[in-house]
Design brief:
- The complex is a heterodimer.
- By secondary structure, chain A is an alpha+beta fold.
- Chain A has three domains: 86 residues, Methane Monooxygenase Hydroxylase, Chain G, domain 1; 111 residues, Periplasmic binding protein-like II (Beta Barrel); 255 residues, MetI-like (MetI-like fold, Orthogonal Bundle).
- Helices cover 55% and strands 13% of the residues of chain A.
- Chain A has a six-stranded antiparallel beta barrel with strand order 1-2-3-8-9-10.
- In chain A, strand 11 and strand 12 form a beta hairpin.
- The radius of gyration of chain A is 36 Å and the shape is elongated.
- The model of chain A has no long low-confidence stretch (mean pLDDT 85).
- Chain B is an alpha/beta fold.
- Chain B folds into two domains: 176 residues, D-Maltodextrin-Binding Protein, domain 2, CATH 3.40.190.10; 195 residues, Periplasmic binding protein-like II (D-Maltodextrin-Binding Protein, domain 2, 3-Layer(aba) Sandwich), CATH 3.40.190.10.
- Chain B is built from 16 helices and 19 strands.
- In chain B, strands 1, 2, 3, 4, 7, 15, 16 and 17 form an eight-stranded mixed β-sheet that branches. Chain B has a five-stranded mixed β-sheet with strand order 12-9-13-8-14, sandwiched between helices.
- The termini of chain B are far apart.
- The chains are: A alpha+beta, B alpha/beta.
- Chains A and B meet through helix 1, helix 4, helix 5, helix 6 and strand 9 of A and helix 1, helix 2, helix 4, helix 9 and helix 11 of B.
Chain lengths: 533, 434
């Protein structure tokens, strides 16, 4: 019994490989069906790597590194690369399909001649002894058309329907001999077959089942025997059989007589999205205001929350303070509430008409004899509200990290400064603060980068508003780059412009990268100066 | 030797797993095919009923509608021999998920959604046209227009929603038909504010202010068998005249500078005589003894509020097109089902037959429905995204009398016409540059 000598780890390993491989084999046909070659090659590559590394006993280190690498590739590198790829395409509403899919949808379309539009008639469905289906279309008393219902392949070889007035006696349909009439229920049971069948009336017209009625007679509609569009691969054009026009490809759509035919498809557009951002005045104009505020917002948010957090941690860092732990717990509380909940709560509190803040400030307004502040409705009030809320949201984090950092600063340094005759303020600014910055500044940079893209807060609290009246595109005073992108590409304009949105995110990424690089350099210098104390 | 055997076992296991995974599909195919061939050839009796598995219609609906629909489908299931699977779905997610689940073969056959999705869904090719046939004559025009896109109709409308005018029944008997009489009624009642309408007081709101601009010839997009994004009518003669008229109403104190919250509290506290908003606010309005009337006319034209319409649509990725169409037209559209749905989840009727029933049962709802029938559906084309901002901003300038030069942008707006022209220009720019 050789199997008994197999260790548990081996069994697990082969089980794992079996599951992975079966998953891959399952996914491959799916990828083939959807023609996503990129995904397919990725899967095959990963599958190959896994099998290659784990089935052999070579590459011992790779066995440890590979899972991490795969996760990094699929969750970090792949989205980033894909985002970059999308930014070079026209991916947007009306252009979400591949060209093959779009042509498939267009070729499925049928049409109805103008004079036959909206015509609805009773349709009876019969079956003969060989289980072939026959339709009786009761267009009017002159056109009670009967014939075999055929599939699309037989349209042009099938005989035309014949006028059979004898089927009706006193406007009542009576089933002809040799046929069985399907009830509504039976029609429904066969509906997937019936929907492919047509009764050929003449060269151009056919009748199809449209509505099965279980309570009365089913009804049909007339459509053309030819499809609305046929695609010609050689010339790469679409032919409109209804108007007899040739529709050439114009970039990412077929165009019939100057009108775009929907749906279009995705194409590579090069740097178009980027040049649109910089050359288009209506985007470039607000971009200036928005960029300025984005920097202000991110910088001030970090500064305020850091200042509040540091102040609190300094106060609570006093030795021998009673209930120190309880205080700390209370101050960390805002950090425990999800930001989106806090933002919505604050929005309610700030409501100028019935919010708590204005009703509390009410007496103050009266004493000072001023109009109540219209929170979030004017530029200044909206911006201060945003900063206020973000400080509230951000200080617990700063409190947390500064508390930790403060405790790691050796007490001897402060005492030495005291011996040398430094005042409390002097020893704070010259010893505590610089030492704090060594360990804290990378976290501040991280916080800055986070706030730079703090979409949740802006979107939920002010929605970017109040609007900048007179700007060429819908944009508000509190919009930051990422919320402006959302307005530009997703909620405004013509549907969802994923390509354009991606290009803005790439630019934001470049900005954040640049700022972080500069800041880290500066931090390194700090470390060189103070790190050796 | 040992290693080879092991590898073989592993591959065997792998392929058996694959076989199990594929097995599900083949079983379903086997179920589908015998529908027509099962029947014994020698008899003509009921050849089709022997099909072993009923067809399944998958319907996606939001929770309230699904709960209303669920008890009703049993009747259709029994009569038609199908399984109707009503799936409770988050309303907003239906819009996005039909576009992803449909192409992947996981989507619904029928889904219930809002009319303003139609443009996006049709442009992306995920919704099928629905020829309403004889049902169309029973539907208010506004509902059919709402679901029209590019010359085709894409859904059966079952509910509408539009604003009308609440009045404080302790102070006035009804809503006058002209704005002059509204002013006179307010003067007589002596309330602090006259008409509270959202869209002022710093909160721009194009939705509530649409009748002020579009009742006498103005329009957002021209509409004929679908909305035309290249024809923006917010600065045509009718729209400019209406905007100037609104400017006059603001100046003489008829229309107060209130946002939604402000107009609501004013009405609840009896400080305003009228409140322009929709049927969702009936609970809030009940703080006072209220009635509802149509919005006063503009220059003899009925006020045209923006109308939101809900409807049933067929996914183009459904492989049961005829069945889905039949479910909607033969069952869902019948007045019995519509009435049962109304009783379980009251929304304004979109069909004339249901309107007649509702009018008797709930006159206030009928007023809202009548207001909707006069209205214009919110354009269903994707370009509408570029309208809300500029349109609301322009009306905010007028409502708040916020004329002047913006120091940051250098743009001067000195009267109502200029505000509308600016909005129209912004919209055209956005559409052209999008």
């Amino acid at each position: 019994m050789i199997y008994l000598s197999m260790t548990l780890s081996k069994i697990l390993k082969y089980l794992f490989l079996a599951v992975v491989n079966s998953l891959i084999v399952y996914v491959v046909p799916l990828a083939l069906t959807f023609e996503s070659w990129f995904f397919l090659s990725l899967i095959l590559l990963i599958g190959f790597l896994i099998n290659f590394v784990y089935f052999t006993d070579r590459f011992q280190p790779m066995k440890w590194i590979l899972p991490g690498m795969i996760f990094m590739l699929s969750f970090v590198v792949f989205p980033a690369v894909y985002n970059t790829y999308v930014s070079f395409t026209n991916w947007s509403t009306g252009h979400i399909l591949t060209k093959t899919q779009a042509i498939g949808i267009l070729e499925d379309r049928v049409f109805t001649a103008d004079d036959q539009k909206g015509l609805e008639f009773e349709l009876y469905i019969l079956q003969d002894i060989d289980l072939n289906f026959y339709y009786v279309a009761n267009l009017d008393s002159e056109n009670i058309l009967f014939g075999r219902a055929v599939t699309d392949d037989e349209i042009f070889t099938s005989a035309y329907a014949t006028h059979e007035p004898s089927f009706f006696t006193n406007d009542e349909f009576s089933t002809p001999d040799g046929y069985y009439q399907l009830s509504g229920k039976e029609q429904i049971a066969n509906s997937t077959i019936l929907q492919e069948l047509s009764l050929i009336i003449d060269k151009n017209t056919r009748a199809q089942l449209y509505k099965i009625s279980v309570f009365g007679a089913s009804t049909g509609r007339l459509t053309s025997t030819s499809q609305l569009y046929s695609y010609d691969e050689v010339s790469d054009t679409l032919f409109n059989n209804s108007t007899n026009t040739v529709c050439p490809v114009v970039i990412d759509n077929f165009e019939c007589e100057g009108k775009e035919i929907e749906p279009g498809w995705r194409v590579y557009v090069g740097g178009d999205n980027y040049s649109k951002l910089f050359s288009n005045q209506r985007i470039r104009g607000p971009l200036g205001v928005v960029s300025k505020w984005t920097f202000q917002f991110a910088l001030l948010s970090v500064m305020f929350s850091f200042a509040v957090g540091l102040l609190l941690s300094m106060i609570l860092n006093k030795d021998g303070l009673k209930f120190q732990k309880i205080y700390r717990a209370v101050f960390i509380l805002p950090y425990a509430i999800p930001a989106f909940v806090s933002a919505l709560v604050w929005k309610g509190l700030l409501n100028p008409d019935y919010g708590v803040i204005n009703s509390w400030l009410g007496p103050l307004y009266e004493i000072l004899d001023v109009e109540p502040i219209k929170w979030l409705k004017t530029k200044e009030s909206a911006r201060s509200a945003i900063l206020l809320v973000n400080t509230w949201l951000g200080f617990p984090y700063m409190f947390l990290i500064t508390t930790g950092a403060l405790q790691s600063i050796p007490k001897e340094l402060i005492e030495a400064a005291k011996v040398d005759g430094a005042t409390g303020i002097q020893s704070f600014w010259r010893i505590t603060f610089p030492l704090l910055m060594v360990s804290i500044s990378p976290l501040l940079i991280g916080s800055f980068a986070f706030n730079f893209n703090n979409f949740t807060l802006i979107f939920l609290l002010s929605g970017g508003g109040p609007p900048i009246i007179g700007s060429e595109v819908s944009v508000g005073w509190t919009d930051i780059l990422i919320s402006f992108t959302y307005k530009l590409a997703i909620s405004g304009g013509r549907g969802n412009l994923f390509g354009l949105a991606s290009s803005v995110t790439i630019i934001i990424f470049a900005l954040v990268l640049l700022i972080s690089a500069i800041s880290f350099r500066y931090t390194k210098r700090l470390e060189r100066i103070y790190g050796n104390i | 030797m040992k290693a080879n055997k092991l590898r073989f076992i592993v591959f065997l296991l792998m392929f058996s797993l694959v076989a199990v995974a594929c097995g599900g599909d083949t079983a379903e195919e086997a179920v589908d095919s015998p529908d027509t061939t099962e029947a014994p050839k020698e008899t003509l009796a009921a050849p089709a009923t022997t099909a072993p598995q009923p067809e399944v219609i998958v319907v996606w609906a939001e929770e309230k509608v699904a709960n209303a629909l669920n008890p009703l489908v049993a009747a259709y299931e029994a009569a038609a021999g199908v399984d109707v699977e009503v799936v409770v779905y988050d309303f907003g997610a239906i819009r996005t998920d039909v576009q992803t689940a449909g192409p992947a073969g996981e989507g619904p056959d029928v889904f219930l959604g809002a009319h303003d999705w139609v443009g996006e869904l049709a442009a992306n090719g995920v919704v099928s046209p629905l020829d309403l046939g004889s049902v169309a004559s029973d539907i208010f025009d506004v509902g059919v227009t709402a679901f029209s896109y590019g010359g085709e109709v894409y859904g059966f409308p079952y509910a509408t929603e539009a604003i009308a005018m609440y009045y404080n029944a302790d102070l006035v008997d009804s809503v006058p038909t002209t704005w002059e009489d509204v002013k006179a009624a307010c003067d007589a009642a002596g309330t602090e504010l006259c008409v509270g309408a959202p869209g002022g007081g710093g909160g721009g709101d194009a939705y509530h202010n649409h009748p002020f601009v579009a009742s006498a010839g103005g329009y957002v997009f021209a509409s004929e068998g679908g909305f035309d994004a290249s024809d923006v009518g917010l600065d045509n003669a009718g729209a400019l005249a209406s905007a100037e008229y609104l400017d006059g109403l603001v100046k003489n104190g008829t229309v107060a500078s209130t946002d939604y919250g402000g107009s609501m509290t004013a009405f609840q506290e009896g400080r305003s005589l009228f409140w322009m908003t929709g049927p969702w606010a009936r609970g809030d309005a009940s703080a006072v003894n209220y009635g509802v009337g149509l919005i006063p006319q503009f220059d003899g034209n009925a006020a045209t509020p923006f109308v939101g319409v809900r409807g049933a649509m067929v996914s183009s990725f459904s492989d049961k097109q005829v069945l889905a169409q039949s479910f909607i037209l033969d069952f869902f559209a019948t007045v019995e089902v519509q009435q049962a749905m109304y009783e379980s989840d009251p929304r304004l009727p979109a069909t004339k037959s249901l309107f007649a029933i509702v009018e008797a049962a709930d006159p206030v709802a009928a007023v809202f429905a009548a207001s909707a029938a006069n209205g214009i559906p919110m354009p269903n084309i994707p370009e509408m995204g570029s309208v809300w901002g500029p349109f609301g901003d322009a009306l905010l300038i007028i409502r708040d009398q916020n004329y002047g030069t913006n120091e940051e942008t250098g743009v001067t707006v000195s009267n109502a016409s200029e505000a509308m022209k600016l909005a129209a220009e912004q919209i055209r720019n956005a559409i052209a540059g999008g």
